[in-house]
Structure to design on (253 residues):
């Protein structure tokens, strides 16, 4: 599958693009079963909700819900079924077209995970750019977000500030963790443009890692899962001696 020029232009303007129904239902059932098994068996490595200290997360590992897993790390090497989703032609070709790059690389040290939002103990993710703690020579990185199940406002679907990958943001409009300060004069008007990206199982969201996004808590009684990877082209390189350059990247094309 190749993107149309209109789709490429939409990504460049808004910073994101939704591609419906990229994975068939039988594969989604297999992915969901795999994720649920790894959660039940607590297959490492993983990150706990209590570790991130986001709003709504358990205060500590010893608190009620403190052992709730937030994400399963190292998805690409965790299982062949998960790695196959990074190699989908709809993903690789789209990233290549948007970045106008010859090659597509996956960085295993950013995202490369299954994000989960569990009932009762999920946290709220505040407005941020993923590039806030990443170290590359430029900001041209694209995240893929594959919905393994339905994503809606009630279970913590992603919210995006369209066009924010092109924004200049004052330093004092960000807190110490590089989240947007919502009552800052420069922020208030911008938040009114926020969009909730509702998705069906099998939908694929591509968005700039420099785009501000957020997500609410899961207020339903069903777990929400999404597979997330980070890609870039050959002109984007991790800076030496940083976490982004911890080891070899994966060349997909």
């Amino acid at each position: 599958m190749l993107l149309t020029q209109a789709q490429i232009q939409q990504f460049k303007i808004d910073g994101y693009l939704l591609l419906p129904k990229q994975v068939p239902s039988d594969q989604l059932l297999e992915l969901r079963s795999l994720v649920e098994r790894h959660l039940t068996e607590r297959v490492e490595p993983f990150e706990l909700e209590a570790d991130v200290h986001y709003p709504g997360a358990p205060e500590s590992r010893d608190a009620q819900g403190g052992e709730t897993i937030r994400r399963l790390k190292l998805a690409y090497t965790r299982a062949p079924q998960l790695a196959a989703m990074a190699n989908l032609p709809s993903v690789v070709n789209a990233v290549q077209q948007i970045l106008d790059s010859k090659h597509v690389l996956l960085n295993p040290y950013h995202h490369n995970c299954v994000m989960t939002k569990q009932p009762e103990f999920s946290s709220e993710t505040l407005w941020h750019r993923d590039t806030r703690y990443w170290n590359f020579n430029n900001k041209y990185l694209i995240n893929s977000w594959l919905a393994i199940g339905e994503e809606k406002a009630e279970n913590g679907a992603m919210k995006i500030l369209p066009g924010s990958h092109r924004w200049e943001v004052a330093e004092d409009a960000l807190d110490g963790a590089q989240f947007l300060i919502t009552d800052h004069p420069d922020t208030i008007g911008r938040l009114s443009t926020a969009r909730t990206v509702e998705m069906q199982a099998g939908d694929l969201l591509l968005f700039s890692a420099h785009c501000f996004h957020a997500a609410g808590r899961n207020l339903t009684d069903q777990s929400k899962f999404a597979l997330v990877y980070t890609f870039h082209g050959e002109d984007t390189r991790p800076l030496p001696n940083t976490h982004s350059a911890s080891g070899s990247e994966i060349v997909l094309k």
Summary: The longest helix spans residues 25-40. The chain has one domain: 5-251. The helical segments are 5-14, 25-40, 49-52, 75-78, 80-86, 89-99, 185-191.
